């Protein structure tokens, strides 16, 4: 700074315009020169270490693991009966007098399902039996006459023509007996048909039988799921069929949440030209609780087990989904995180497979990953201390 007495001394010696110019020059110099305090503050700012920056969050980390994973193929489909048997009437024109089973009943092979009126059949059977007795009597008489004729063949007592007539009458009577025996058998069969029995063991799935109805021959009265067996008909894209093998195990989840197990029985021989998919038929394994809950026509999702292989996995908590993409946060040497885009694969309990984007040597944020942004400075600690540290940081910020 210039002493004030010198400025006053020059003030009397210099003209006024020169004095004004000199004053402006002095003011400009004072404004441009930094003060001692500003220099000190600048020096402190330069010497301040970057390490004193506050961490954004306390996190825990983990390294990717090489895990044995089961390879699966997901598909959708409907549960259906393995085979359905149509049980109809063979007693033509008879009245239905009794229905013994209903929908949902479990029946065994040979069990009586319904009964028809048998009075007419009993009468026809009695008539056939009477005709049989008559034919047998006629046969006995014809046989006796034919036997006497045979004994007189060489004596010449009767002509050869008469002998042939007696022998022919015997054969005719014998044929009539056979015909009446067949009629008796037919009436007995009709009588048997008055008892409608189950052709196989299974579960009754439909019933149209009504007591008092006169049923025509061949009309369906019951429908039955044979053996009670159910199957899952999965729709699989044609490009995936080569990965499925007969006998492969399948795990299913029905629409009501029931979990079922099955095995591939057969792969459909044709492909639907509309959606390029084929049906894969899966037998549901015997499981009383499972099959009781699963019903034909129910929708189910399933996974075919294709084998197993190694895969890189991380805890599901480490993967953050943003804008439709999956990301993880890698810890860099300077303590900051780098947001990295990854591709995910299969899920195994609390682990997720990472197919692309990281290596086994990377250190990945697990707890707290959902609150981070690219470049954030973090403090790494153990998993059981993350929640406590983050709570303390939040309180300090408030």
Outline type: rod-shaped
Beta-sheet strand percentage? 25-35%
First-to-last CA distance:
48 Å
Count of spatially separate domains: 4
Total helices: the number is: 7
Could you explain the architecture of this structure?
The chain has 398 residues and is an alpha+beta fold. The chain folds into four domains: 4-47, no CATH class; 57-64 and 319-397, Beta Barrel (conserved putative lor/sdh protein from methanococcus maripaludis s2 fold), CATH 2.40.420; 73-82 and 230-308, Elongation Factor Tu (Ef-tu), domain 3 (Beta Barrel), CATH 2.40.30; 85-224, no CATH class. 32% of the residues lie in helices and 35% in strands. It has seven helices and 22 strands. Helix 4 runs antiparallel to helix 5.
Task: List the defining traits of the structure above.
398 residues, Elongation Factor Tu (Ef-tu), domain 3, 4 domains, 4-stranded antiparallel β-sheet, alpha+beta, disordered C terminus, conserved putative lor/sdh protein from methanococcus maripaludis s2 fold
Task: Tell me the layout of helices and strands.
Blueprint: H1 4-13, H2 16-32, H3 36-47, E1 57-59, E2 61-62, E3 65-81, E4 84-88, E5 94-99, E6 106-107, E7 112-116, H4 119-151, H5 160-193, E8 195-197, E9 202-207, E10 214-215, E11 220-226, E12 230-237, E13 249-254, E14 259-267, E15 277-284, H6 288-293, E16 299-315, E17 320-322, E18 325-331, E19 337-348, E20 351-356, E21 364-365, E22 378-380, H7 383-397
Helix pairs in contact: 4-5
């Amino acid at each position: 700074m210039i002493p004030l007495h010198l400025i006053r001394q020059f003030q009397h010696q210099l003209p006024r315009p020169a004095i004004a110019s000199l004053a402006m020059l002095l003011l400009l110099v004072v404004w441009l020169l930094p003060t001692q305090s500003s220099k000190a503050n600048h020096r402190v700012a330069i010497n301040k270490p970057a390490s004193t920056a506050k961490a954004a969050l306390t996190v825990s980390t983990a390294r990717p693991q090489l895990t044995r994973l089961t390879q699966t193929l997901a598909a959708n489909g409907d549960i259906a009966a393995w085979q359905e048997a149509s049980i109809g009437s063979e007693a033509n024109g008879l009245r239905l007098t009794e229905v013994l089973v209903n929908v949902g009943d479990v029946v065994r092979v040979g069990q009586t399902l319904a009964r028809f009126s048998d009075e007419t059949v009993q009468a026809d059977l009695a008539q056939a039996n009477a005709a049989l007795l008559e034919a047998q009597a006629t046969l006995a008489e014809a046989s006796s006459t034919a036997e006497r004729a045979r004994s007189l063949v060489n004596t010449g007592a009767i002509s050869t023509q008469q002998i042939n007539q007696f022998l022919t009458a015997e054969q005719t009577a014998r044929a009539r007996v056979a015909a009446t025996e067949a009629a008796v058998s037919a009436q007995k069969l009709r009588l048997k048909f008055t008892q409608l029995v189950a052709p196989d063991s299974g579960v009754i799935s439909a019933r149209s039988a009504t007591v008092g109805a006169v049923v025509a021959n061949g009309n369906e009265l019951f429908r039955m799921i044979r053996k009670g067996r159910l199957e899952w008909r999965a729709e699989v894209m044609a490009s995936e069929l080569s990965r499925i093998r007969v006998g492969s195990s399948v795990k299913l989840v029905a629409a009501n949440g029931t979990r079922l197990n099955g095995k591939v029985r057969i792969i459909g021989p044709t492909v639907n030209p509309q959606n390029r998919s084929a049906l894969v038929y899966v037998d549901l394994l015997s499981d009383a609780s499972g099959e009781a809950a699963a019903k034909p026509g129910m929708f189910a999702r399933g996974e075919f087990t294709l084998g197993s292989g190694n895969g890189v996995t991380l805890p599901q908590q480490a993967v953050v989904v943003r804008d439709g993409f999956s990301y993880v946060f890698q810890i860099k040497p300077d303590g900051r995180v780098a947001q990295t885009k990854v591709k995910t694969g299969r899920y195994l309990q609390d682990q997720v497979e990472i197919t692309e984007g990281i290596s086994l040597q990377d250190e990945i944020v697990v707890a707290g990953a959902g609150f981070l942004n690219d470049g954030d400075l973090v403090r790494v600690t153990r998993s059981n201390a993350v929640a406590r540290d983050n709570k303390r940081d939040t309180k300090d910020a408030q």
